[in-house]
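Standup notes
- DV: blocked on the single-chain target, sequence here:
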Amino acid sequence: VNLLSNFKYLAAKKCFEGLSDRNTPRRRTAASKCCHTHTMTTARHFVMTSGGCGGAHITKRRYPSRPSAMSPGRLRTAPKKTPVNVASRRKCLTVVANVVPQGDALPPPAVFNAVLATAEKKAAQDLSTTLVLGFSAGALIGIGALLMSCVGASSPALAAANPGLCNFLKGAVGLPAGLTLVILTGAELFTGNVMTMFSGLLAKRIEAGALFRNWLLSYAGNFIGSIVMAYLAFGAKTASAPAAKAAVVGIATSKVSLSFGGALCKGILCNWLVCLAVWGTMASTSVAGKVLAIFWPITAFVTLGFEHSVANMFLIPHGMLNGAQITVKDMMLNNILPVTLGNVISAVIFVAGLHFWAYGRQN
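- DV (later): unblocked, structure below
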């Protein structure tokens, strides 16, 4: 802004010097190039516009008997900040000063409106698209879970020496990458869809049929994608190392050993954080902001040992393929069912319901 002001001051000074001798054709030509000439009474004045250059203007009146609109008397009564658009009359560098940059995040009420718009879009989506994008989400979350198993969970020396740091490493490396890929590709993740679609239902923007259709297709797609990724990871022998194999078997076994109430509570706490991560991605207007909004909530839930139903759809079958003594009945009744129920409760009550009460019920 200071540089722009100095430039305008120098331009004005140059114009005044050029106008001091009106009988000199060369200086009149220079003055006319710097600024336009009004056909009014003689008066020097400044014109500050965003589309033109600031400078002193010479105004000449063709008919001296009429008062000039730019005469000193009228200039005193004229508004001080009346813009003069001269950009259309000549080509000049456009400089915009004092522009307040837009923020990198939407305010919470605007985010809730974005959630409702997303719910409407998902409700209007055809069935095959929802199913295919659900498959993609399950596979991508499976990749993140595989990365977590093969890096953070496969560090027995670190786990023995510093279990807290080892848990943080498991949280920071793996599932944040998986959810980032889900968000950036527009995949259909069941746990996030529970929050999105139920918000639309509370606001009466979608019908109950559209909600259940989206939940069913995204859940089925997530399950299929996770199972396919588990078989691909097993075929690629990603857990062939003894430490990695012990890690994936131990993770699967520990997950089916939870009580029903414990798995339910871990599922509630997990999806509360996951839905807030999805909320944060809708609040952010940049890719970097979306990645950061995902990182902390997902890292927190994995570090604290909470349970995510879609991630478990990969982790438990992958452990079974690598030798974990688990049946399908154990997987479904001891983990997938209570964790899914907990994920739904947290998304419906603590994210969709809470934010609807704060930002949507007035409308």
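- Follow-up: The first helix runs from residue 2 to 19.
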